[in-house]
């Protein structure tokens, strides 16, 4: 064997090995997620959703352009996550689009059609601050249906970095939720109880328009209980969940009995109730708060809770916007308003994990009573809270002092010492009928029997109906959780969506939504202080290594050839 052939054998083996490696790689494809929190690994729930996509899902992502660093991070992680979705199911295809490019009129029309508003972000570069417009949205299309997917999460009082960080936490949920709306057929039914002075449809429109993308929604009145209770109960049992949003008229015993039997037969329920009512004195302009009796005290007492006819005040609260000055000189100012608690729970429960603070208005305290039902306090006030008895006069001059010095000093600590007061409670277990060992107000027929001991079920009680109420812009409902006066977003909508998902055992989306990831960002203040140092390091360090390499190379070369 000649010398040239011997030298070529290792090269041939190397080339053959590379060909074999490439062939094996084409047969066995595997992606590796090396991040510590495995944020690019699809959860089991997300896989179950995209498994149902048997035809193409086309995703247009509007994150292309010249962005500040935190939005480049959002762009990069969105692409990597969509790569993971596409690698798991080849029917998912995506493209990044710059909505500011010429010829993007089609996308601008879609933005208006789907209500996809741009985000204004502050960019600090070289000590100068500027404002940029970003469209943090995606549109997913499947079989003629289109859904919008928000990529930037609204967060109260957060910087752009904090919002992006929170959005990265929410990214897998945002796409899984969008894909679920496209490929999953609705199956469960939700009844919205009417007939007892509940909210008008326009004040709950935003929440239920969102909810109907997942479930069948229908109004249900209890008026027919008086004439045909058995038929009413049978019709009610067709629903998996009932929602009672801010009733203002008392329930009759017959209506309570029908709802009680619905719960005994395993029906789930969500109650948003006020234990108070407010009357405005037209002469003085002052508001007076009184207790309100809905004839439900014995109802909830039997189940293990009590909504007290009182008000809670909390130092950690949302501001109120009031006009100061007269006529054209008047200006709107924000003032502390302790009757609007902001509840941000630290409880380790999927309903309240990783959500924004929920805004209440004139909420009441809930007591939990001992019985066999498991109770979980979902939301409560901060430790700096106070309970106010009724009747109570709300005097704005007293509650909001004109002396700003007094406002800045804050409340007296010895008055706000009631601790954490429950405002929303989850009850789970086998409930006992309110009418057990009592005379029944009506007699069931058509094969229906009275049930004194119930099947396992779940119930959530919230001591403020305003939690579900959206504000109005003229005749148009605004998004639930948005306060147009202070231009702030709260977590009411996400909290209620989590609640409904949990009550209907639709835990897949909750598990994705509450997933925690850790995204490191640079410290802006530190980078500005050390900017010159690291610029010099980046510039001089490579040149230094190059100089050392050149000197060593010349030394070895000189040593080799001077022998």
Describe the fold and architecture:
This protein is α+β, with helices and mostly antiparallel strands and 563 residues long. Helices cover 33% and strands 26% of the residues. The chain contains 15 helices and 27 strands. The strands form 9 sheets. Strands 8-7-9-10-23-22-19 form a 7-stranded mixed beta sheet. Strands 2-1-5-6 form a 4-stranded mixed beta sheet, with helices on one face. Strand 7 (189-194), helix 6 and strand 8 form a beta-alpha-beta unit. The longest helix has 31 residues, at 531-561. It is globular, with a radius of gyration of 31 Å. The model is unreliable at 403-409 (pLDDT under 50).
**Structural class of the helix and strand makeup?**
alpha+beta
> Biggest sheet, open or closed, and with what strands and sense?
7 strands, mixed
Helix content: 25-40%
Radius of gyration equals 31 Å
Instruction: Quote the distance from N terminus to C terminus.
Output: 35 Å
Question: What topology emerges from the helices and strands here?
Answer:
Blueprint: H1 3-27, H2 44-50, E1 57-61, H3 69-88, E2 92-96, H4 105-114, E3 119-125, E4 128-134, E5 137-142, E6 145-150, H5 160-183, E7 189-194, H6 205-211, E8 216-221, H7 229-236, E9 241-245, H8 253-264, E10 268-272, E11 276-280, E12 287-291, H9 297-303, E13 305-307, E14 311-314, E15 317-324, E16 331-343, E17 358-359, E18 366-368, E19 374-380, E20 385-388, E21 392-394, H10 396-399, H11 404-409, E22 422-432, E23 453-462, E24 472-473, E25 476-477, E26 482-483, E27 488-489, H12 492-503, H13 507-513, H14 524-529, H15 531-561
Parallel strand pairs: 1-2, 7-8, 7-9, 9-10, 10-23
Antiparallel strand pairs: 1-5, 3-4, 5-6, 11-12, 12-21, 13-18, 14-20, 15-16, 16-17, 19-22, 22-23, 24-25, 26-27
Helix pairs in contact: 2-5, 3-5, 5-13, 7-8
């Amino acid at each position: 064997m000649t010398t040239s052939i011997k030298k070529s054998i290792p090269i041939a083996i190397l080339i053959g090995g590379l060909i074999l490696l490439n062939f094996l790689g084409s047969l066995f494809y595997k992606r590796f997620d090396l991040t510590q929190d495995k944020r690019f690994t699809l959860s089991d729930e997300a896989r179950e959703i995209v498994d149902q996509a048997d035809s193409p899902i086309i995703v247009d992502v509007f994150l292309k352009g010249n962005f500040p660093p935190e939005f480049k991070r959002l762009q990069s992680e969105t692409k990597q996550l969509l790569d993971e979705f596409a690698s798991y199911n080849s029917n998912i295809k995506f493209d990044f689009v710059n909505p500011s490019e010429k010829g993007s009129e089609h996308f601008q029309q879609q933005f208006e059609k789907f209500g996809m508003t741009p985000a204004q972000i502050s960019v600090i570069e070289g000590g100068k601050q500027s404002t940029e417009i970003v469209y943090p949205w995606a549109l997913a299309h499947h079989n003629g249906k289109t859904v919008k997917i928000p990529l930037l999460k609204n967060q109260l009082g957060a910087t752009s970095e904090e919002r992006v960080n929170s959005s990265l936490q929410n990214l897998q949920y945002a796409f899984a939720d969008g894909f679920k709306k496209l490929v999953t057929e609705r199956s469960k039914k939700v009844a919205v109880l009417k007939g007892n002075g509940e909210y008008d449809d326009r004040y709950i429109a935003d929440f239920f328009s969102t909810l109907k993308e997942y479930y069948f929604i229908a109004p249900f009145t209890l008026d027919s209980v008086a004439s045909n209770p058995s038929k009413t109960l049978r019709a009610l049992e067709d629903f998996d969940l009932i929602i009672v949003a801010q009733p203002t008229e008392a329930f009759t015993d017959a209506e309570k009995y029908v709802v009680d039997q619905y719960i005994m037969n395993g029906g789930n329920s969500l109650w948003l109730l006020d234990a108070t009512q407010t009357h405005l004195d037209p002469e003085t302009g002052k508001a007076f708060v009184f207790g309100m009796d809905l004839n439900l005290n014995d109802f909830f007492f039997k189940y293990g809770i009590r909504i007290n006819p009182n008000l809670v005040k909390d130092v950690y609260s949302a501001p109120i916007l009031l006009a100061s000055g007269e006529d054209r000189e008047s200006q709107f100012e924000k003032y502390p308003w302790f009757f609007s608690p902001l509840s941000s729970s630290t409880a380790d429960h999927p309903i309240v994990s990783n959500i924004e603070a929920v805004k209440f208005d004139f909420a009441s305290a809930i007591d939990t009573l001992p019985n066999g039902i498991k109770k979980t306090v979902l939301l409560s006030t901060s430790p700096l809270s106070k309970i106010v008895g009724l009747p109570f006069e709300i005097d704005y001059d007293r509650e909001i002092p004109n002396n700003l010095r007094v406002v800045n000093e804050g409340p007296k600590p010895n008055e706000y010492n009631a601790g954490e007061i429950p405002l929303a409670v989850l009850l789970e277990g086998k409930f006992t009928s309110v009418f057990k060992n009592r005379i029944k107000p009506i007699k069931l027929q058509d094969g229906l029997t009275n049930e004194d001991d119930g099947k396992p079920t779940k119930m959530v009680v919230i001591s403020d109906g305003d939690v579900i109420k959206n504000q109005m812009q003229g005749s148009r409902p605004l998004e639930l959780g948005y306060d147009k006066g202070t231009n702030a977003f709260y977590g009411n909508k996400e909290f209620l969506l989590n609640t409904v998902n949990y009550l209907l055992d639709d835990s897949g989306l909750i598990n994705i939504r509450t997933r925690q990831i850790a995204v490191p960002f640079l410290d802006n203040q530190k980078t500005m202080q050390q900017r010159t140092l690291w610029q010099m390091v980046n510039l001089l360090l490579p040149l230094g290594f190059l100089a050392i390499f050149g000197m060593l190379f010349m030394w070895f070369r000189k040593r080799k050839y001077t022998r």
